[in-house]
Amino acid sequence: xxxxxxIFNLAxxxxxxxxxxxxSNLFYVxxxxxxxxxxxxxxxxxxxxxxxxxxxxxxxxxxxxSKDLFTFFGDYYxxxxxxxxxxxxxxxxxxxxxxxxxxxFFLKNLFRYGAVYFQSHLRMAVVRDIRxxxxxxxxxxxxxxxxxxxxxxxLSRMTSDLNEIEVALVYVLEIIFREPLAIIISLGVLxxxxxxxxxxxxxxxxxxxxxxxxxxxxxxxxxxxxQEQMGGLLSRIEESLGGVRIIKAxxxxxxxxxxxAKDNLEHQKSVTxxxxxxxxxxxxxxxxxxxxxxxxxxxxxxxxxxxxxxxTKAGLDGQxxxxxxxxxxxxxxxxxGIAGGLTAMKKAEASLERINAILDIPESxxxxxxxxxxxxxxxxxxxxxxxxxxAKGFKVLDNINFExxxxxxxxxxxxxxxxKSTISDLIPRxxxxxxxxxxxxxxxxxKLTKHNLREFISIVTQESILFNxxxxxxxxxxxxxATKTQIIEAAKxxxxxxxxxxxxxxxxTNIGDRGNKLSGGQKQRxxxxxxxxxxAPIMILDEATSALDTESxxxxxxxxxxxxxxxxxxVIAHRLxxxxxxxxxxxxxxxxxxxxxxxxxLIAENGYYKSLCDIxxxx
Length: 619
Prior knowledge:
Elements lengths: L1 H10 L3 H23 L1 H9 L1 H4 L16 H70 L4 H6 L2 H8 L1 H34 L1 H22 L2 H24 L1 H6 L3 H57 L8 H42 L20 E12 L2 E12 L3 E6 L5 H7 L8 E6 L2 E2 L5 H5 L2 E4 L10 H5 L8 H10 L3 H5 L18 H15 L3 E5 L7 H15 L3 E5 L11 E6 L2 E6 L1 H7 L2 H8 L4
Parallel strand pairs: 3-8, 3-9, 6-7, 7-8
Antiparallel strand pairs: 1-2, 1-4, 4-5, 9-10
Helix pairs in contact: 1-8, 1-13, 2-5, 2-8, 3-5, 5-8, 7-10, 8-9, 8-13, 9-12, 9-13, 10-12, 10-13, 12-13, 17-19, 19-20
C-alpha cells in the first residue's frame, strides 16, 4: 500500500487534471449503468408486448425516504413510459427508448474520453516532473557517486522505471475512484433486482479474486531484478559506444558481442518471466469471470424455472434476469480493473524504490545554513594542514600546506597517483577535505555556497568535455548572456577563431557527440575559450596539453599562456617543460609535498624534481 499511496500523491501534484479525471470517471460510471438499465423497457416491449400494450392506471409515485430511492426511480420510469405509450403508442415508445439509450451511450463515451483526455496530461506531467527531479539530482550528485555507480543504471531509472510509474498513474485514480464507484452502483442495482442472486454471486467472486491476486505478489521482485539488469545493459552499451575506437583497435568485437549477448539473454529471460506473470492475470481474470457468470446464470435460471413450475414469482422476471446478467458482467470489468491496477502497482512500487534510492541520496557536500557572500578574490588561496581520503584508512593527501597568491601561477608535479588532481578537485569542493581547511582570502570555502565559490573558478581538464551542440553554445556554456563579440574575442585569445571561421558553418557548426568532429587540439582550444569567456579570476588547468601532439601542444600552450595572464592559476603538469616559468612548483609524492620552489631553485636542490626533469631531459 505504500507504493499505491506514493503514486496517489504523485497524481495529485496535478490537482486540476486529477479532479477533472475523477469527475469524468464518475459520470462515465453513471451513464454506463444507465445505458444498461434502460434496456429493460426495450426488452419488455420486444419480449412481452402483450403486457406493454395493456395501458394501466399508474399513479405518479412520490419519494417517501432515501431508502426507497431505487424503487422511486423504477416506479417513476414505469409511470412515465405508461403515459408515453398512451400518447405515442408502442412504436413511439420503442423509438424513444432507442434514442434514450443512444444518448446514454454517447454521454458515457464522452466522459470516458474526457477521463482519458485529462489523464493523458496528468500522467505525462508527473513523469516529466520526476524525470526533471532525477536529472537535477544526477547533475548535483557528488563525483564519488559516479566512481562507484554505473551511469547506465541511472539512465534505466530515468527511462524504464519511469515507464512503469506512468502505467501505474493510468490505474491509480481508476482503482481508487472509478472502479469502486462502479462496483458500488452496480451492486446497488443488482441488490434492488434480486438480493438472493446478488449474495450468491458475491460468494463466488472472492474465489477468482484470490487466485488472481497470487500472481501479482511475485511481480515486484521480478520487476526489480529486470530493471537492475536493464541498468547493466545500458551501462555496457554506453561504455561500448564511448570506447568503440579501442574495441576496434584491439579486435575485441567478438568478445564484446559475447559478453553483451550473455547479459542480454539474462535480461530477456527475466523480462519474459515478468511478462508471463503479468499477462497471465488477464486470461485468468476472464476465465474465472466467465465461470462466476455461468454459475449465476445456472442459479438464477433455476430460481425462475422453479418459480414457473410452482406458479410463483422468483423476485425478478425474465427480462430483469437478462438485465441482471448484463449488469453483473459489467461488474466484472471494474473488479478486473482493480486486479490489473494492483498488478501494475506492484511493478511501479519496485521502480519507485529504485528512483527514490537516487532522489534520497543525501547531499555529501552541503551549503552552509548562513553562508558568507563573497563578491571578489583579493589575496590568496591557502591550504592549511589538509588531509583527504577517498576511503577510510587510505590517505590520498597528508598534511598539505601551501599558498597560491593572487596573480601567481602555481604548478603541481609528481608521479601518477601522487594527489595532484585531488588537490584541484578540493578547491571547487567537488570533494570536501577530511582534515584541515582550505581558505580563500582567509574564509573557509565551506562557509561559501558551492555556487558562489565556483563563480571564482574556471577549469580546463585533460579530456576536453564538450557537448553535442554548436561551437558558439559550447564556448558560452555557463555564460548564456555572452554577446557574439565576446565569444569571438575569447576564441581569438584561445587561438581558436582561425580554425572556427574556416569550418562550413563557422561558430554555428555542430561538433557532434563529445566534440568528436574536431581534433584534440581544436577541442582543447574550445575548452580554453570557454574558460576565458567565464572571466573567473582563478584558473585550474589539469594536464591540459598532455594528450596532444607536439604541434597542437604548442598552439594550445600559447592559448593557455594567454589564459593565465592576469589570472591566478593552478596548473597540473605532466610535461614539465610547460611549467618552467611557474612562480611556484609544488612536488608531490604519495600524497605528501616533498619539495617546493621555482624551477631554478628546485633544479639546484638536485632532489626529486631534478630526477623528474632528467627523465624528460629538461634542464
